[in-house]
UniProtKB/TrEMBL annotation, chains A, B:
Record-given protein name: Uncharacterized protein
Pfam families: LacI, Peripla_BP_1
PROSITE patterns: HTH_LACI_2
SUPFAM superfamilies (UniProt xref): lambda repressor-like DNA-binding domains, Periplasmic binding protein-like I
Record-level Gene Ontology MF annotations: DNA-binding transcription factor activity; transcription cis-regulatory region binding
Origin species: Vagococcus penaei
Record-linked InterPro entries: HTH_LacI (IPR000843), Lambda_DNA-bd_dom_sf (IPR010982), Peripla_BP/Lac1_sug-bd_dom (IPR001761), Peripla_BP_I (IPR028082)
Length: 313, 313
DNA sequence: TTGAAAGCGCTACCAG
DNA sequence: CTGGTAGCGCTTTCAA
C-alpha cells in the first residue's frame, strides 16, 4: 500500500506539502503541486480514510437507529434521510434495534466511541434521560415530539389531522371507533398522540376493548379484525395504524362475509390508494430530511414540526 | 477525552496490559485485570473506534450500493442484508447511487480508501470490468447472475419460475403478452432474464410495442397502461415488473372501463395479495443474506443461486 | 512556501 | 505475565 510518505519521498517534497496538495490548501507553489500530483497519479495513490478520520476526530457518518424496516414509518423517514445525505459527504449507517434497549444503548456507546458523528432515533424504547447522557458525544435526534427543549426533536404534528379525521367520521355518522396502535401508549409517542387526539375530540376515554396494540402489518391487521369481531363491541369505524393494516382488517371482514365498518388508514400507502381508504399522510420523508439536518448541525433549531395531512376518500 | 494512556498511568500498568484487558486477551493476571477495569469504570473510559480501525486496517462495515429504495427489489435485499448483519459486528452503510456511474465509481474509490471492508451492488450501471479492477481492495458482491467466475455473485434463478408462469398463462388460453421491465435489456440483468425466458418459451421475439421499460412503481404502471392502450396491439395478458406496478396498470384499465387482461405481478407484495394477482417471489431477502455472507468472507463459494417461486392466484 | 516533528489513540511485536 | 515501543497513515503546528 502506498502512503503519503511514499509520495513525499518520490516527489522530493515533504509529507506536509503532500498533505496540503491532497487537501487543496494554500501555500503550495504551482510546481510543487504539479510534481506531487504527478507522483500521486503514477503510484495510483489514494489517502487512507480511517487515518484521516483519526487525525481529525470525526467520521462523516450518521447512525440511524430503526427497529425494523417493515413499516412505512421507518422506510419513509429513511428515504428522507438518504435524500438529504445524498448531496453531502455523510454516510448513513443503518442500526437495527428491534426495540431492544441493550442494542439501543450499544449504539449510544458507539457514538461515544466515535463510530458516528451523530445519531438519529427513528423510534426508541430507551429512556430519554439515558439519551441525554450521551448528548455530549454528538448530536442525537429523536423523531418524536419531545417537551424537553434540550433534546433535538423532529416530528409530524398529528393532532390537527387526527381531529379532522374524527370530524369527518362524525359527519358521516360514525361516533364509536376501534383504534389500532403499533405499541402501547406508555411507550409509543405516536400512540400517545393518537389517544390524546381521541380524548380531545370525544371528551372521554375509549373502551379498552376497542384499543388494540401491536398492529403494524397486513397480517397484524387481519388478526386484529379477528379479535375485534370475537370480543364484539359496538363500533362503527376503525382507526387503523397504517393503510397496510387497514387492508388486513378489511380483508378479515370480507373473508367472513361481515359488513364492513368505515376504515381510516394512515401513512398514505399504496394499499390505501388501491382500496380507496381515507388516510393520513404524516410527511415522514420530510421528517427524515430535517432529522438529518439536525444531526449534522446544518440546522440551528432544536425542534422541528411537520404537519400531517388528512386525505378523505 | 480519556485515552488508553490515562488508564495505564492511573492504574499503574502499561498501555499494552490495558489493551489486553480491553480486548479480553490472555496473559493478564486477575488482579491487573481488576485494577485496570476499576480505573476504566472510574474514568468512564471507552476506546476510540477509529483508532482501533486504523491500527487494524479494517472498518467492520459493508457498503450497500442501491439506486433508490422505491422498489421492493432493493428493500427486500436490504432487509436480508440487515438480518444477516444483525448478529455480527458489521455495520451496514447505505450508498444511494441513482444509477449514476460516477457515484458508483466513487463508492468503489471509497472501498479503496478503506471506508468499507466490502461492497454489495444490489444493482449497477457501471461496467463489470471496472468493478474487477477494485476487487483487490476488498470483496465486491453483485446481486445478479454473472458468468464471470471471478466476480462474487448472488442472484435469484428466475427462468424456471418465469417458464412456469408462461405455462400457467398458456393453460388459461393466454398467449400474447405485454412485458413491463424496470430498465432496458441491455443494462438490466433482471430484464435480460425475463426476455430470455420469454424467448425460450415462445421461440420468438416479443412485439417491441409490447415491451415497456422504466416501470417500477404504481404510477409507472398506470402510465404504462395508458401507453399500451394507446398503441393498441393485440395481447391477452400483462407480465408486470412488480405487484405494485401491476396494480397501477390494473387501475388504469378500471378507470377507463376497459376489460382487464390477465395480469401477473412480481415480488409477492401486499398489493398483489390484496388484488389476488398471481406473482413471482424472487426470495430477495435470501439473496441479501447471502450477499452479506460473501461480502464478509463468511462464505467461500463465489456464486450463489436462490430459486424464485411462481405463486398462482 | 516548505519541512520537521509531534501528535491522533490504539494494536502488536518482541524482550524480559 | 508485563512493559516498551514501533508502527497504522494522516493532519497540523511551529519554525525556518
Amino acid at each position: 500500500m502506498t502512503t503519503i510518505r511514499d509520495i513525499a519521498r518520490e516527489s522530493g517534497y515533504s509529507v506536509s506539502t503532500v498533505s496540503r496538495v491532497l487537501n487543496n490548501k494554500h501555500h503550495v507553489s504551482a510546481e510543487a503541486r504539479l510534481a506531487i500530483q504527478q507522483v500521486i497519479e503514477q503510484l495510483d495513490y489514494v489517502p487512507n480514510n480511517i487515518a484521516r478520520d483519526l487525525s481529525k476526530g470525526r467520521t462523516e457518518s450518521i447512525g440511524v437507529v430503526l427497529p425494523h424496516t417493515n413499516h412505512p414509518y421507518f422506510t419513509q423517514i429513511l428515504d428522507g434521510i438518504l435524500a438529504a445525505a445524498f448531496v453531502t459527504d455523510y454516510r448513513i449507517v443503518l442500526l437495527p434495534s428491534d426495540y431492544d434497549i441493550l442494542r439501543e444503548q450499544s449504539y449510544l456507546e458507539q457514538l461515544r466511541c466515535k463510530v458516528f458523528d451523530g445519531l438519529i432515533f427513528t423510534s426508541r424504547r430507551i429512556e430519554l434521560e439515558i439519551i441525554k447522557n450521551y448528548q455530549k458525544y454528538g448530536p442525537i435526534v429523536c423523531c418524536e415530539k419531545l417537551e424537553d427543549a434540550n433534546v433535538l426533536s423532529v416530528y409530524s404534528v398529528r393532532e390537527p389531522a387526527y381531529l379532522e379525521a374524527f370530524q369527518w367520521l362524525k359527519k358521516r355518522g360514525k361516533n364509536q371507533g376501534a383504534i389500532l396502535l403499533s405499541r402501547g401508549e406508555e411507550i409509543s409517542a405516536t400512540a400517545k398522540a393518537t389517544m390524546k387526539a381521541y380524548r380531545a375530540f370525544y371528551q372521554s376515554e375509549p373502551d379498552e376493548k376497542l384499543v388494540i396494540t401491536g398492529v403494524t402489518t397486513y397480517q397484524d391487521g387481519y388478526e386484529a379484525g379477528e379479535k375485534l369481531v370475537r370480543d364484539y363491541e359496538s363500533f362503527d369505524y376503525i382507526f387503523a395504524n397504517s393503510d397496510d393494516d387497514a387492508a388486513g382488517i378489511r380483508q378479515y371482514y370480507l373473508d367472513h362475509d361481515l359488513s364492513l365498518p368505515l376504515i381510516v388508514g394512515q401513512e398514505n400507502q399504496l394499499s390505501g390508494k388501491l382500496l380507496k381508504l381515507p388516510t393520513i399522510d404524516h410527511q415522514l420523508s420530510k421528517v427524515g430530511q430535517h432529522a438529518f439536518f439536525l444531526a449534522t448541525k446544518q440546522s440551528t433549531t432544536t425542534h422541528i414540526a411537520v404537519m400531517s395531512h388528512f386525505i378523505p376518500r
